[in-house]
Design a protein that fits this description.
The chain is mostly helical. It contains 12 helices and no strands.
Amino acid sequence: MKSHIAARKGQAVVLRFSAVLMVIAAAALTTVVSHHSRAILLGSVALIGAAMPQIGAIAVSRLSTLITTQAMRTALAVESMMTEITFLAGPAIISVAVSAWSPIVAPGISVGLIVFSALLLAAAHDSEPPRSSPGARSGSRLQHPALPVVLMAAANIAIGSFFGASQVSVIAAATRLGNLDIATAVYGVMSLTSLLAGLTYGAIQRTRAHAGWDLTASFLGLCVSAVWLTQTHALPPLVLLLLVSGVFVAPTIITTSVITEHATPPEHVNSTFTVLTSLQSLGSAVGSVSAGTLIDKYGAMHGFLVPGIATGVGAIVALTYALTRNRERDRL
């Protein structure tokens, strides 16, 4: 809904509206602390979720408008780096703030940063992508644009499942090994190597012709490391394999974004990435539940089978895309 309105009325309208709703929701959440109302708690959390603007999708749509396709991979690598820095620094900052003041500070900081980012983007009118007009049909950059987008939708579900299942499995594994307190730090190891891998991958000169094969290799790397994690019985090999997994995380995310951006007309980039981000969240939820079920039934380390299966499916999806692109080039 929000992406459709943004495509027709402009992103600034949606961003400002989302910012207002998030402030209202944050105020309601603060009220919960004083009155202990479960109804207000559920309502305010639901409102925050509904109002939250897809900053990532909006950023990608603006990048595709401002820079050349050749520079897109480097730009996405920088965006991936900033995401990983957020994952590393965010929990630490929130923990310090909660310890120093109050638990309500945590959502307050998050909402404040999102509102600030939304208003900042809303003010930058020159970077907005072109708006689509009713009934307009845009030519695609690929011969069959629907197929790459559908395949990348499946890839995003696989990525989301990997993240959701990995978080649950790392916590379970750390608990089994008697080190629950360091679960966050252990998972952060993967973010650290992902950050470095994203910077390296963005700096390497690779053509779009290799994107499908790059994505296949990244998914296979995630699959092998995840399945191998099921056989670990000590903390050092767990940390080592998570380090290896992180090497493939950022290249996977960057490549799916590059393929999607290339396959989507400029005026539909925002809505397409919004849908793919939602699918990634869906995959994360499914992965978390699936891993938790396996852990309860068969033990802590079996949770890693879920990210292994998810990324194995992702490798098949990526290989399908690579072979399809090869056939299209052969026809030219």
